[in-house]
């Protein structure tokens, strides 16, 4: 892990050197988001080794962080130039409704699509196991209730994009696209992020291999 951590710090240092003094603050937010994610992953690791199944509320307080929506949003904003002001980074860091909703969509859809495979290979409890234990219900019932939470989260995302906000729409679209990516990777109960198949390969090829027709 130390080489990975050092590589990340080196990357942030390079970005910091390329940014002018007016925007040097953005790398600070990226570093703090990374530290927050690492702490959350450490919590999940402790849960796994202790075979601890938290309540849904306790689980989400950690697992929404390990969805990495905040981390990736901040990193994507670093490259947005002057549009991404310090106020914008403060907005992300304060976890507004659209950010929390996007994290919820990705986390719960990921859990429902991958939890059976993860439990077979050994993994910390997901929201599915947490809900089943806390409420004493079947797996199918847990799916139904968690899907309702995903639907409600989508309403919050849509509301965040439609209502006037101090955050430029170009930046809000980044957040929206993370939610869309979650639906793409985990929709229909299939985890094509872990089990990469033809659909994911075609999409990656369209981004990095195939020429854009003009």
TrEMBL record:
Terpene synthase metal-binding domain: residues covered: 1-156
Record's keyword terms, sorted: Metal-binding
Gene3D superfamilies in UniProt: Farnesyl Diphosphate Synthase
Cross-referenced InterPro entries: Isoprenoid_synthase_dom_sf, Terpene_synthase-like, Terpene_synthase_metal-bd
GO molecular function, one term: magnesium ion binding
GO terms for biological process, alphabetical: terpenoid biosynthetic process
PANTHER family: OS04G0344100 PROTEIN-RELATED (PTHR31225), TERPENE SYNTHASE FAMILY, METAL-BINDING DOMAIN PROTEIN (PTHR31225:SF241)
Protein name: Terpene synthase metal-binding domain-containing protein
Record organism: Vitis vinifera (Grape)
């Amino acid at each position: 892990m130390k080489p990975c951590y050092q590589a990340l710090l080196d990357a942030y240092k390079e970005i910091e050197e390329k940014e002018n003094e007016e925007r040097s603050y953005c790398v600070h937010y990226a570093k703090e988001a990374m530290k927050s994610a690492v702490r959350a992953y450490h919590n999940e690791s402790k849960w796994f080794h202790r075979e601890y199944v938290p309540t849904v509320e306790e689980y989400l307080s950690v697992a929404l962080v390990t969805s990495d929506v905040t981390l990736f949003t901040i990193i994507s904003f670093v490259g947005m130039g002057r549009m991404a002001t310090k106020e914008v980074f403060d907005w992300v860091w304060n976890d507004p409704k659209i950010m929390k909703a996007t994290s919820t969509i990705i986390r719960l859809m990921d859990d429902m699509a991958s939890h059976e495979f993860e439990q077979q290979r050994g993994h910390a409890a997901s929201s599915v196991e947490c809900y089943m234990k806390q409420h004493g219900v079947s797996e199918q019932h847990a799916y139904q209730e968690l899907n309702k939470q995903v639907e409600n989260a989508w309403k919050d995302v849509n509301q965040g994009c439609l209502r006037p906000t101090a955050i430029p729409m170009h930046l809000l679209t980044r957040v929206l696209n993370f939610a869309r990516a979650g639906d793409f990777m985990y929709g229909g109960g299939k985890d094509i992020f872990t089990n990469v198949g033809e659909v994911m390969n075609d999409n990656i090829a369209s981004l990095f291999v195939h020429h854009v027709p003009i």
